[in-house]
């Protein structure tokens, strides 16, 4: 089962990457049985925490989002995550030939590498149930660092390239990931201008 890889990537990542390479699942199957499920963790937890728990501003004032606003932002976040994983996966495949790997017509290895590398970020979504900004920032920073290391570790195994080429390949992919992140931030601002911004209420 593909979800079994989530645990293996934290305990024995090299063996897990080799297993992922051997399975060579289609992008559709990886998305349906892995990405769609795990990517939903953060939006669901964010909805619950922002609509029902709220967070403290100052000494005792609790701020929440309206349920409609929380749902809108959670759905948009979910869609952004799905698009981001897809875009990163295709970037991995598109750059494969440059770094000595084989480019595939369906980007199976690229999508798998992107999806499984994002596992720490998906699971970090549980931290949103405790809506304290500094805590969430630390958890997601740690998850992003481990996700980047997973991608670097998996590149030579999944894409079958020499380890020394993985450094340059990983650096290029990090740049792509940052561009995707900035694009989602810009998209968020644009959507807020069209009425999808957060609506706050005092708890």
From TrEMBL:
Pfam families: Yip1 (PF04893)
InterPro entries, per database record: MFS_trans_sf, Yip1_dom
Keyword tags: Membrane, Transmembrane, Transmembrane helix
Coiled-coil segments: none
Intracellular or extracellular location(s): Membrane
Sequence intervals crossing the membrane: 31-55, 75-95, 107-128, 134-155, 167-192
Lipid bilayer topology: Multi-pass membrane protein
Domain Yip1: 7-183
Protein name: Yip1 domain-containing protein
Organism: Marinobacter zhejiangensis
């Amino acid at each position: 089962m593909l979800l079994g890889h989530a645990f293996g990537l934290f305990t024995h990542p090299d063996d897990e990457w080799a297993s992922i390479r051997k399975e060579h699942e289609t992008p559709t199957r990886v998305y349906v049985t892995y990405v769609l499920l795990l990517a939903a963790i953060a939006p669901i937890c964010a909805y619950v925490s922002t609509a029902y728990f709220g967070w403290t501003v100052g000494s005792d004032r609790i701020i929440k989002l309206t349920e409609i606003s929380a749902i809108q932002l959670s759905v948009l976040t979910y869609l952004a995550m799905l698009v981001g994983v897809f875009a990163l996966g295709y970037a991995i495949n598109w750059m494969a030939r440059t770094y000595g790997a084989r480019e595939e017509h369906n980007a199976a290895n690229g999508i798998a590498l992107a999806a499984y590398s994002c596992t720490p970020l998906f699971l970090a979504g549980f931290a949103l149930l405790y809506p304290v900004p500094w805590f969430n920032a630390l958890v997601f920073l740690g998850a992003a660092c481990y996700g980047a290391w997973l991608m670097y570790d998996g590149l030579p195994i999944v894409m079958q390239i020499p380890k020394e080429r993985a450094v340059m390949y990983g650096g290029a992919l990090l740049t792509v990931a940052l561009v995707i992140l900035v694009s989602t931030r810009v998209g968020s601002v644009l959507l807020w201008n069209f009425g999808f911004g957060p609506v706050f209420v005092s708890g």
